[in-house]
Amino acid sequence: xxxxxxxxxxxxxxxxxxxxxxxxxxxxxxxxxxxxxxxxxxxxxxxxxxxxxxxxxxxxxxxxxxxxxxxxxxxxxxxxxxxxxxxxxxxxxxxxxxxxxxxxxxxxxxxxxxxxxxxxxxxxxxxxxxxxxxxxxxxxxxxxxxxx
Length: 148
Prior knowledge:
The protein is mainly beta.
């Protein structure tokens, strides 16, 4: 039999975890300064590898880039198309870098999901994605952007 105190403790821990992983945009207020689109192919058996390309529209110009990333706990092959907004970007030279998940990822039925990511220069991207294929991710998410 489960004791009521254990249930309350479990609920308190779950609430603390959800608050700790609240997306950045809910904690800090930024206006979007650009739009981003990314196409990724993800292949994984234990350790996943992602590769792809994309563009960011900033100050009326499209800037193109490549993407490479690793994740732990990936199993399967999937193709991900993502679009979103860019925040806290003052100079396009701050855009490339390593982005890590800055908020809890969310995946809905049909492979639709979203994640907030931040690079080492404080640039934030908020992505909404549509995923095709079969994939299971149990670990942290991140990738590195290289300008073309």
